[in-house]
Specification:
Largest sheet: 2 strands, antiparallel
Order of helices and strands: EEHHHHH
Shape: globular
Length: 128
């Protein structure tokens, strides 16, 4: 009988867009999500001088915010350290839309964009 190959164990797998590691702490998912989101933000920033504020907000929502919201109910109970990484992505997105510096106050910008903090976004998604 021919050997059909062996199955090897993987430390990280992707299922329906969410990354799971062998400890199910979602750290791999958050890392990949933040990396991809910052990549998109850098690309939007490169063409930012050609965009109106409305177009920039639409791009940020389409390329970053939707990515954060996808499968975010899986992030309930995540450590504060991991949630802070996601919050930094959201804060950077808001600053990009309004072309503010990284030292400006984020709360007024988030209110203008109607962005809930990450912890409340997760709770809202579960309640929904």
């Amino acid at each position: 009988m021919a050997n059909c190959g062996s199955i090897t164990k993987s430390r990280c797998v992707r299922n329906l867009g969410a990354w799971f590691n062998d400890t199910f702490d979602m750290s791999q998912h958050v890392t990949i999500l933040c990396s991809a989101s910052f990549f998109q933000l850098r690309n939007i920033r490169r063409i930012g001088k050609y965009l109106t504020q409305e177009v920039a907000a639409t791009l940020v929502h389409f390329l970053v915010t939707c990515r954060i919201d996808y499968c975010n109910s899986l992030l309930y109970g995540l450590s504060d350290y991991q949630l802070a990484k996601l919050q930094r992505v959201q804060n950077s997105a808001a600053r990009l839309v309004y072309k503010e510096s990284k030292f400006c106050q984020i709360t007024p910008l988030s209110k203008k964009l109607h962005l809930l903090p990450i912890t409340f976004r997760i709770r809202f998604k579960i309640a929904l």
